[in-house]
Input
Amino acid sequence: MQQFRITWRVALATFLMLAFAGNASAFSWNPVNWFRGESEEAKKEKNRIVATPEEQAAARKIYEEAQAFEAQGRPKKAASLYMQVAKEYARTGSAPRSLFNRAMLYTKSNRFKKAFNTLQTIVVWYPEYEGFDKVVAEQFNIATRIMEGEREYLWGTIPLLRYYPRAIQYFHIVSRNAPYSEYSPLSLMNIAIIANKTGRNAVAIDALDQMINFYPDHELAPDAYFLLAEVFSKIIKGPNYDQGATREAISYYEDFLILFPDSDKAPLAQEGLNRVRETYAKSKFVIGEYYFRHLKNETAALVLYNETITVAPNSESAKKAQERIDHIKARSVGPVIGS
Output
């Protein structure tokens, strides 16, 4: 057995030395990457346009033929040739242009899903494409059309039901594709608007939170703060439930009024703030009543009654809390008539 071990190790060492000696420039071993696949840099290198001049010329010829068919009103033939360029000459400059034109043909017939996915192919495989901004703009336009109620057409002829979640999905992708462009904050705001209208509160809150954190100086930032407060206020169940949403709504209404006091939405924000403060004050009063009436703990009840007044001093709950405070103090110095 000992002899076998020595032989095996020697054989392995000999193999490695021969491999290294035969291809020293290509051989490199990194224990971190030993079990990994192809590196990201290697993948990027493969995706770069490295076509020969002959391939570039052949692709350009087919591309121009496709353009001619499109101009003649023969979109199916044009789309077929555009796809031929993208498949057979993927490393040429004509490939991303062909994909873009094919996507535009899909868009014209309201085949939004195919159009968007074709454009996304350009984003993934051709990030250095000179028309990248146009690609993102068209993706944004597709998402906007769906948001505004346009229908997807199956095979370009059969209208499907409106599907607003797809617009949310597409706006998310646009925001990730171009985080430093104008389309990212607009996409996040549109996500929030759609989600708010369709009852997807968590989605709306997430999008608005990204909006105010990543783009605090954007012109839509005031609208984001206001809508965030509105969404939280909408999910408040009442004074007898957990007040997490109420506290969030108060915080964002207050932030809005501090940061944007001259906004035309300031009066609405103040009304909203008063409303949610009343709810929060009432929740304090309800708990205070429980301590006072059921647990007979007047000390804790007084703390909660005072918090009620602090939260919303002009509210109905504050008036009741003051009455309870006066009642407890009066009892501590003498008999009290009534309760």
Observations:
- Residues 94 and 163 are 34 Å apart (CA to CA).
- DSSP finds 15 helices and two strands in the chain.
- Confidence is low (pLDDT under 50) at residues 1-38, 334-339.
